[in-house]
Amino acid sequence: MSIFRWAAGRLGAAALVAWVVTTVVFFALRAAGGDPTEAILGGPGSQAGEDAVAQARSDYGLDRPLIVQYLVQMRRILTFQLGDSYARKQPVAELIGAQLGSTMLLAVCALALAWVIALSVATLATRAQGVLGRVVSGLVQAGEVTATVMPHFWLGAVLILVFSSTLGWFPATSVGASPAGLVLPVVTLAIPTAGFLGQVMRDGLDEAAASPFATTARARGASESRILWRHSLRHAALPAISLSGWSFGSLLSGAVVVESLFGRPGLGRLLLDATSTRDVPVVVGSVLVVALTYTVVTTMADGVERLVDPRPRGADRATDRTLRAEAAIV
Amino acid sequence: MSIDETLALDIRGLRVSFAGVGEVLRGVDLTVAPGECVAVVGESGSGKSVLVRSVLGLASEGGSTALVSADRFTVGRTDTRRLSARGWRALRGAGVGLVLQDALASLDPLRTIGAEVGETLALRKVPRAQRRERVLRALEAAGLDSPELRFVQRPGQLSGGMRQRALIASALVAAPPLLVLDEPTTALDATVAARVLDTLAALRDAGTALLLISHDLAAVAQIADRVVVLDDGAVVEHGPIARVLMAPEHPTTRRLVDAVPHGPKPGPAPALGPVMLSARGVSRTFPTPGGGHVRAVDNVDLDLRRGEVLGLVGESGSGKTTLARLLLAADLPDAGDITLDGEPWSGATHRGRLGRRHQVQLVPQDPLASFDPRFTAGRILREALARGRSTSSPAELLDAVRLPHSVLGRRPRSLSGGQRQRLAIARALALEPDVLVCDEPVSALDVTVQAEILDLLVGLQRSRALSMVFVSHDLAVVRRVCDTVLVMREGRVVERGPVEEVFAEPQHPFTRELLAARRSAGPALRRA
Amino acid sequence: MTATTTRPARLRALGVTGAFALVFILLMVVAAVWPTLFAPGDPDAIDPRAAFTAPGLAHWFGTDESGRDVFTRVVHGTRQSLGIGAAATAIGVGLALVIGLLAGLGPRRLDAALSRVIEVLFALPSLVLALLLVAVMGKGVTPTLIAVGLATAPGYARILRSQVRSVAGSAYVEAARLEGQPALLVFGRHVAPNTLWPLVAIATLGVGQAIVWVSALSFLGLGALPPSPEWGAMVNGGRVYLVRAWWLTLAPGLAITLTAAALTVLGRRLGRVAAA
């Protein structure tokens, strides 16, 4: 497959995401009977008079037929106009643009930290042999399962309690990019992802170490550590790389919670506030940005994967690999 | 005891045991001299694999710690009994090389052939330029064409035979005096295997000591000088290959020799009835990933009469399995027509075929995959009986394939390979078919088990007057079982006729090549 | 099924860890059905004089700002937390069954279309998708439950589709077809059971994940609200007093983590048992 067809496919997927999300939200919202006017005029329970309601309806084009509203919405999306926030009366793109950087910094740092933790734990765990190895492996496995399922909001609270309130090492609230304030949010986000990636990597390392090519390498005189670094690790990294795109999505999920917990501005906070006030343009805009980010990160992960695995690939091998890795976790 | 410096490998009284398993090797004696090829032959579970790994000091590889002891255990001049882990690593690759069976899995698919073959040298800090030089020479010595190109390719880009050669190159790049070869040709087509064995013979003649492990006496007969027969972890017989093949002394050896398929089909010629299954101008095309098409089966005619056994022979990719699937109506032809018992088969409607499916049944290559993993043997047979017209019981079916009734409550996974294949045959018989299509039914089995299954199939076919299509890559097996044979190549039938005629006077060059490959594999077996 | 030989084998496949997880989950189920068995007190009983009592013999997990017993509240919250998790999973799996089976067994075009949609929705992180749905449906326990259910459906559908495909293309299904079994029989006897067993394992795991997500929504103030003893709501209520009374956050959070971990372990072991 040429690089252009591949890129075109990715772009198509992103466009499809945008279309499905907008359409589903648009119609679901109307079907649920929610009247956006309410949100425009100060959220649920607003006391606005009838004139104000009528004015708002015509301002936001809500008095036109449903299908026209839908088409207008689609045209806006296609031209990257996300509209104005109902609650804040500001363009959605501006609102998101102001918050995106902070969240990306958080998520990227967390993904990097998760990789470091997962790699270290997985490689160290395979070092231990014999009875010690079994004990270590059991402990690591239990730790990974617990880490994977741990809710961000609770983990963050515990970290605040220990490292902020008790030890006073790091601040519990963080604004902007101050490194000290970034530590606890990043660690909170990274640990569950590290548990998940660690499981994938350890499975991969074990499988590679038991494969015939590892036997062949041993028969050439290679030591276990050379087999780990020169052979097994590349194989184990592949599914973890494929899953990093998906992990990044779950980091953005986590960012909603973490930003709220640590009082950090960001896309997650914006999305959360907009959800509470049913500020639909902002919600849709944020969701679209998240989906777009997912597409970009998956594409990058795909590129990295091609660097690590230069074999020519079938149509949906990456999907297969993701599924297999997920199945292994399951 | 002094070290005998004239031997490449000298093992006396080798014992290997695993905790919880017990002793796997019980006092094995084995010597290999430079320029000599010694074959170790035994069935599954005889301890061959553990022996291979022990010779390389890798007996503990699976994770469970092995206890290894020996009265003498020298590789070249090294007494390995006092060797540290570091010492073993230095010995592996330079003192002894290993070639495993499955070359696709045995070479790291993510690394280039150059990196893989050169790893032994890289470990020994050979400078890069010199390393490349030696890798290219090793690739050439292993019989690979255009080594420069292979150097930058990855295992997935090579054919099976080329991969096996690359693996051999990786074992001999540091010129170890001893090569250990674990079933090096088992996964290869006969013609390719014969050429790989020629390459190995050349290495032996150049002075390398070869230790060749196999379950198949015929496969090692071409190049082995001596043979050691292993049974239940002990050597039961050893001697020059010709002597062991001609006059086996131990019952195990005799069983192994007798199991090697040779000679024509025993018994009288079959009484042939009317045509059961008939194909006219049948073709099947598949799309290839690149956007092209491949004709897996190309304009094939065949007639199968009642009571006849028809062999389909060819190498991998010749279309024989696709043709078998067409005959089963598991797949439909793009062109041509297949009739069953004079009535439309490939041309019938889906519903029309459903009621006649029981007439044509399959004995698959991998029986385990063909059983629902949740079902017991008893349920598998009852289910099949419900579809056919047979009045027999599951127990009677087990009797017919000589399985004990105790397997009824067991799941196929807990059965041995031979038992699974018997169960698959019983399931096919449950439907009282007219035609049995056997797709490589014995290729995954040990030779001794293979012989039993072949006898069973022939016996059943005779007693029930079945027609049979027998797909195989192995000419000797086909000769034992079949009355007529079709030789396939690239989807076409290149030769056909009664088996003995084709064997005596092959017309097509490809048939002659196939026969030559098989004959060179067992010179001593030609006596039959 | 030959129960005499397979049942012990299945139990053994569960392993010590799996057995532990199973016992833990069974205790949780008992607590959900009959909470007074473990905690006879009233979860809403206020006792201002005993506010912020640290964990001890009288109050195992301490008391909250109104003097309510945290242990009693955690036990009584089991019903809601576990129930919501199970209900959300049921919605997700139910929807996934329809989509996954249609895609896995339907004509190629339908499969292509459905797979696209599944992949697109899978591209949205579950919590973000759930927030989107909450924005549409409004706050509350029922909307969050439905939102989490719908948000998990693409993941299940994806796994189910590939499972259906691999079973439908397996050698044993072909063997059954070559025996002459009609398509419906093949589906009922081979495809459905071999697809659904792994799904049970995945769904068990999914309940744990759903509990975490639902409690996250409660924590964010979109689902159950304090004074409900739902675990996420309890953590939300306790976070204000994190420094003063850490147990208000720790106890319900621990309940969520342990339940989810136990369900994960159990789900994985069940996967192995299904294969055995």
Structural class determined from secondary elements of chain B: alpha/beta
Largest interface, with counts of residues having CB < 8 Å to the other chain, equals: A-C, 56 and 57 residues
**Largest beta-sheet characterization of chain C:** none
Overall pLDDT score of chain B? 88
Secondary structure tally: strands of chain B? 21
Return the CATH topology of chain C. MetI-like fold
The number of helical runs of chain B is: 20
CATH superfamily annotation of chain C = MetI-like
Overall geometry of chain B: globular
pLDDT below 50 for ≥5 consecutive residues: which ranges of chain B? 521-528
Give a count of the beta strands of chain C, DSSP E runs of length 2 or more: 0
Architecture of the largest domain in chain B, CATH level 2?
Answer: 3-Layer(aba) Sandwich
Keywords (chain B): ATP-binding, Nucleotide-binding, Transport
GO molecular function, one term (chain B): ATP binding
Protein name (chain B): Peptide/nickel transport system ATP-binding protein
Family (chain B): Belongs to the ABC transporter superfamily.
What does this structure look like?
The complex is a heterotrimer of chains A (330), B (528) and C (276). By secondary structure, chain A is mainly alpha-helical. Chain A folds into two domains: 15-78, no CATH class; 92-329, Orthogonal Bundle (MetI-like fold), CATH 1.10.3720. Chain A contains 13 helices and no strands. Chain A has helices at 3-31, 36-40, 50-59, 66-78, 92-127, 130-149, 152-166, 179-209, 212-219, 224-262, 267-277, 280-308, 317-329. The mean pLDDT of chain A is 79. Chain B contains 20 helices and 21 strands. In chain B, the strands form four sheets. A six-stranded mixed β-sheet of chain B has the order 7-8-9-3-10-11, with helices on both faces. In chain B, strands 17-18-19-14-20-21 form a six-stranded mixed β-sheet, sandwiched between helices. The longest helix of chain B is centred in the C-terminal third of the chain and has 17 residues, at 447-463. Chain C has 276 residues and is mainly alpha-helical. Helices cover 74% and strands 0% of the residues of chain C. Chain C has nine helices and no strands. At the B-C interface, strand 17 and helix 14 of B face helix 6 and helix 7 of C. Chain B: It comes from Sanguibacter gelidistatuariae. Chain B: It holds the Pfam family oligo_HPY. Chain B: Keywords: ATP-binding, Nucleotide-binding, Transport. Chain B: InterPro entries: AAA+_ATPase, ABC_transp_ATP-bind, ABC_transporter-like_ATP-bd, ABC_transporter-like_CS, Oligopep_ABC_C, P-loop_NTPase.
